[in-house]
Amino acid sequence: MTVGFVMLCHTALDRAAEVARHWAQQGHPVVIHVDARIRPRPFRELRTALADQRKLIRFSPRHRCHWGSWNLVAATQDASALMLKEFPQVQHVFLASGACLPLRPAGDLAAYLAERPRTDFIESVTTSEVGWTIGGLDIERFQFFFPFSWRRHRRLFDLAVRAQRRLRVRRRVPEGLVPHLGSQWWCLSRPTLEAILQSPDRPRHDAYFKRVWIPDESYFQTLVRRYSTQIESRSLTLFKFDHQGKPHIFYDDHLSLLRRSDYFAARKAWPHADKLYDAFLRPQATGEPRAEPNPGRIDRLFTAAKERRLKGRAGLYMQSRFPTDNFENGKTAVSYSVFQGFSEVMPGFIDWLTHVTETRVHGHLFGPERAEFAGGESIYRGGLSDSARLRDYNPKSFLTNLIWNTRPEHQCFMFGPADNQKVNAFMAADPNARFAIITGAWAVPLYRSGQPLEEIRSEAARLQRVEMELLDLLNQHWTKARVRVWSLAEFLGHPMEPLQTVVEDTAPRLRPRVTSVPPLVDLTGFGAFLQSLRNHGMQPLVMGDYPANDLFHSDDQQSRPYLVS
Amino acid sequence: MLPPRAILCFSAVRNERARLPHFLRHHRALGVDHFLFVDNNSEDGTVDVLLDQPDVSLWSTKAGYKAARFGLDWTTWLQRRHGHGRWCLTLDADELLIYPYCDSRDLRALTGWLERARQDMFPAMMLDLYPKGPIGTAGDPDDPLRTLCWFDAGNYSVQVQPRMRNFWIQGGPRSRALLDDPRRGPTLNKVPLIHWQRHFAYVNSTHSALPRRLNHFYAEDGGEWPSGVLLHTKFLDSAPARAIIEKARGEHFFDGSLYAGYYDAVAADPDLWHPHARRLTGWRQLEALGLMSRGGWV
Description:
The complex is a heterodimer of chains A (565) and B (298).
Chain A: E1 2-9, H1 13-25, E2 30-34, H2 40-49, E3 57-59, H3 70-86, E4 90-97, E5 101-102, H4 106-114, E6 120-121, E7 125-126, H5 154-167, E8 180-181, E9 187-189, H6 190-197, H7 202-209, H8 219-227, E10 231-232, E11 237-238, H9 255-261, E12 265-266, H10 274-281, H11 296-310, E13 336-340, H12 342-345, H13 349-357, E14 360-364, E15 379-380, E16 384-385, H14 388-393, H15 395-406, E17 411-415, H16 424-428, E18 433-439, H17 443-449, H18 453-474, E19 482-487, H19 488-493, H20 496-506, H21 526-535
Helix pairs in contact in A: 3-6, 6-8
Chain B: E1 8-13, H1 20-30, E2 34-40, H2 46-51, E3 56-61, H3 72-83, E4 87-90, E5 95-98, H4 107-116, E6 121-122, E7 124-128, E8 150-151, E9 156-160, E10 167-171, H5 173-178, E11 193-195, E12 201-204, E13 208-210, E14 228-232, H6 239-249, H7 260-267, E15 278-279, H8 283-288
Parallel strand pairs in B: 1-2, 1-4, 2-3, 7-14
Antiparallel strand pairs in B: 4-11, 5-14, 6-11, 8-15, 9-10, 12-13
């Protein structure tokens, strides 16, 4: 069986010549169309270079082929007709571009096609089913007129489309045709191609498609639906489009990927990819002729690349990714927990939490003296410094860097109203943030400091104000963080329940059971301390219903602690 | 006469004889077709090294570096004359460009891809490399990356300055260990590779260029655009000695005296290494760490 290759060339003619020679040397005829925009000299050089293959290589009449123009179809028609006429032994015609790279020996392709003599391989889908049209035009490309170039006169093009939408312009599709779209790289059987090219209706078809937008993606794709008996709606040529709808280019480092793809050809190869051309144009042993083209791995790779370009990596802020607020696709890389008041009430809380949840637990990362990294390190992962000055210069970068540098590990850190509050709004809006707060616990260290009340009073008022601002922030309608709040009285009344909740939030997969509470600080006299704050004119609002005698379980039934905020 | 699609590299140098052979080798391998150097009064044989090269054109000046906007006036003039319509790479002698796939695709492939994506600039942030141990011990200028192979992976401050809307990356080991005031931290964002037009100009080293859109090389919608990294080989063993000379010359940006503390810190031959420092293995590592991005290039 013989395959005829039709090549449409417009750049890198030296590479096209190598490929044409490669096919011809394996005994398969090639018809080359060279864009009429190519100057006479390079064209002449191409003809001379291939002069020794005169038997199997022909040149078809030249057309000027702009992107998406009818001339591309006309060039294909002329070249295919020439192929069918000059080489009667050809049973299938394979349409390729000058930038296509053959991946498997032509013998493989011939054997593959010999087993499927009447099958036409052409991507052909109805307009409502393609998801890839650029510019949002699908059925409209068959119904409107397109007097302006999309590439060169984009604004006029859009204007014309809008006007025709408004005027409800509808061109009639010729009878017997149902518009279909698909990639232009097909492989058609002789009977189908002859039926299309020699159809008595061809003048009508051509006249219609001359005014369709991008007819090279729809002319053959539509007509095969009328004339073919057996369509495989897929291409034997590997090609991939990027997020802008431009074909991806294959480079030297794609060699093994292309080898394993089992496609018969790939488009487009980088003209300077010497390794690729060397590897694939060298005479190859015939592979497994029955191997089916296998897009799996390649699809995954290219889908991931598109995703990376359009969505990026969550929580990454860097030189070529700096999303504006609320366009981050994830403000931080992974989840993290913020604990306010816990280490004030339970001095051993950090070690306890590390042990129970198996996560990384830092001290006060935003503390006024320094960033208290876990393990007391002064330089943490990624080179983060514990200097408060460096951190406070850009606290948002500090936080996002820490979460990014330690991903996928879950970070926990202590927080409090005495710490830097600059990133509160950022964390509140971050679904990855988990706040657990014991309100009023900041008063415990003040009480235990033993300083005179006059000095403590204003500091207590300040810390309370800061904490209330945070609570207020976490109550906003746009807050996305998970927030748990207990008043100090509520927590001390029943510490087990809140602790069980926070460890489950922190390590949901581990689901640890809390069996013992870490030791609480001695709070004897704290009730009296709160009373004397009141006596000095500072009203403690966030501690809950703290009993004056520091006893919680004497009269449980009567006074249940309640949530303040 | 330079071919129309030649990729050019511009650089203003002073006393860089030790670094230049590796610098030239590295960028030649990436596909730079021709180097255009301005020598500013070197005394260490820099000129001889450059005159020896087949692909270098050399200009010389004895004028002051600071007065010439840190060499920019010289290179800008060369870019206007020779860069128009070409891809131009502007580097200091202690910068080595790497970018996604740089081990298998040359600059012609990169710039060709950028052109197809209608992007006429390519950012590359500076990554300060340091040795393990005091910086004065990192010899081997023949292959600086042999000893200068450690870096800070994730301590960079990224922000858009509210007033001028300037994009600003700072941080790294210099901010961490050598500077007292984080506001004076080194500017690390650069846009060294530009498809040059006659009316373009660099403003502040290659940190920013005009027209302003050339500095808008980052996606704001959450996506990632392509970027590379400039490996910064500043901390070779000569760095402490150089710091003393530079402090005396006082030709730093802005007010040189603000950086007196910094020069003293470098002159004291510090050890920048720490247990969380990362060892450089290649572009894939930097891409995975998020210091550069392939931005949809496959």
